[in-house]
TrEMBL record:
<dbReference type="GO" id="GO:0003677">
    <property type="term" value="F:DNA binding"/>
</dbReference>
<dbReference type="GO" id="GO:0006352">
    <property type="term" value="P:DNA-templated transcription initiation"/>
</dbReference>
<protein>
    <submittedName>
        <fullName>RNA polymerase sigma factor, sigma-70 family</fullName>
    </submittedName>
</protein>
<dbReference type="InterPro" id="IPR013249">
    <property type="entry name" value="RNA_pol_sigma70_r4_t2"/>
</dbReference>
<dbReference type="InterPro" id="IPR014284">
    <property type="entry name" value="RNA_pol_sigma-70_dom"/>
</dbReference>
<keyword id="KW-0805">Transcription regulation</keyword>
<dbReference type="GO" id="GO:0016987">
    <property type="term" value="F:sigma factor activity"/>
</dbReference>
<dbReference type="InterPro" id="IPR013324">
    <property type="entry name" value="RNA_pol_sigma_r3/r4-like"/>
</dbReference>
<keyword id="KW-0804">Transcription</keyword>
<dbReference type="Pfam" id="PF08281">
    <property type="entry name" value="Sigma70_r4_2"/>
</dbReference>
<keyword id="KW-0731">Sigma factor</keyword>
<feature type="domain" description="RNA polymerase sigma factor 70 region 4 type 2">
    <location>
        <begin position="111"/>
        <end position="163"/>
    </location>
</feature>
<keyword id="KW-0238">DNA-binding</keyword>
Amino acid sequence: MKICIENLDAIIEKYQPLLLSMANRFDIFDKNEAYIMARDMVFEIVEDFDAKRGSFGGYLKYRLYFYFLNECKREKIYSLNSKDMQGVEIIEKIDDDISIEDDFVRKIEINELENAIKSLKKQEREILYLKYDKNFSHKEIARLLNLSPKSITNYHYLIIKKLRKYFEKEDLV
């Protein structure tokens, strides 16, 4: 049998006793998990194998042995409350700029703003869209809507006033 990726299933089947033996050799791992880890490594080992350097079985055994040895050296974390070698809980080492409360409040604010905008007339929504989404000036909006720039300024002022009133009425300010 040629040692290549195309024969990967046959290789795994042929060397299954070796894979099981290596998986059972290290008590630190769950046996099923270790076997799966060994099977996953076979792909990489087949890719790296050079027939000029010796037999595949010996190379597979060597690579799996050192793979599992290296895995044993890694610090296993089972919980965020586990402590590292200095006695510090893992959760304390995690940097987070995210506040669940702030995200929650922000989502509520966004939903209320959407509701407030839905309560506006179509032309008012259009003006807000052009002003804040498209970043158009009052002059550009006026040209698009066939109104004067002064009218757009007045509309904008009234729209903001309506939105403030909506938020005050809903007791969100």
